[in-house]
Design goal:
mainly alpha, globular, 0% strand
């Protein structure tokens, strides 16, 4: 008798074989995609990052620390940290205000305002630097007025702060807006009904609800300020010991064939990023424990 005509009762293993074939194919595709993803990450992230560490410590630990003690490098670190200390608080306050206004109010032109926040994402950092030069430079709109007042913006720290603030402006707002919209305003209205002041509502109701979105926004802002190159390069002049941040120091040292100094500074930038991630993880764990308690 033909097995196809006999049905499953005469050949019970044939159905299992047909079902197991697609499962084998799906398993093969899954492992292939995982391997492809790992290879992609290895090529663009793991191997380049590992190579930076190898080049930085190629001649030993002592030359590495000697490079970190150079005056030009130390000044670049101080200037980078100082710019971050100025820009991050400013953009945090701006981002909170913008997110609250957008998430809690419906007004004409709201979509346009949200699009304005995204301009730094769409504009090249080099173009952003040129915009600041054309505005505050010697021949810019405000150039004669600033010159008369003996105020120097371009090729000085104020322009570097402006460029960093422009590039990192949307990070906090973009992280907080969806969190505020998801949380809604019911708890805030209930607190207001119970007699809480605006500051008490923000501190005890709004801020706990948005803390993770705010934290991510601050971390992203800080990381981008410390690593910004294009806009800062245009407005700073890249003067060693005066207007050179850490990314500019890396680029200049590499161009001058001081490769180990460049890689040592790159390791420090990577270390700052790692510290930022560790702090984020610690805060997440601490807050998670408090929530459980």
């Amino acid at each position: 008798m033909n097995s196809n005509l006999a049905g499953k009762s005469f050949n019970p293993g044939s159905g299992d074989a047909q079902l197991s074939s697609p499962k084998k194919e799906q398993g093969w595709v899954k492992f292939a995609l995982i391997g492809l993803a790992i290879a992609y990450l290895a090529l663009i992230l793991f191997i380049p990052a590992f190579n930076v560490f190898i080049q930085a410590f190629r001649e030993g630990i002592a030359p590495f620390f000697h490079n970190l003690a150079e005056p030009g490098f130390l000044h670049a670190v101080k200037l980078t940290v100082l710019i971050a200390l100025i820009v991050v608080p400013i953009n945090t306050v701006f981002g909170l205000c913008a997110a609250w206004a957008i998430a809690r109010h419906q007004f004409r032109g709201r979509a346009f305002v949200i699009s304005l926040l995204d301009i730094p994402f769409a504009v090249s950092p080099v173009v952003a630097g040129l915009m600041i030069v054309l505005l505050y430079g010697r021949n810019g709109w405000f150039g004669p007025m600033l010159g008369a007042a003996n105020i120097k913006i371009i090729f000085a720290m104020p322009a570097m702060v402006l460029a960093s603030a422009f590039i990192t402006m949307p990070f906090v707002a973009r992280e907080v807006i969806p969190v505020l919209e998801e949380a809604g305003s019911d708890q805030e209205e209930a607190a207001k009904t119970l007699g809480a002041s605006d500051w008490q509502i923000f501190w005890r109701v709004t801020l706990p609800n948005i803390r993770w979105g705010l934290l991510y926004g601050v971390i992203l802002t800080n990381a981008r300020v410390m690593g910004e190159f294009g806009a800062v390069s245009v407005v700073s002049g890249n003067i060693t010991g005066k207007t050179q941040t850490l990314p500019l120091f890396v680029e200049e040292a590499y161009k001058q064939y001081q490769t180990q100094s460049a890689f040592s500074a790159a390791v420090l930038l990577g270390g700052l990023a790692l510290v930022t991630l560790v702090l984020k993880e610690i805060l997440e764990r601490k807050t998670r424990i408090e929530d459980v308690e």
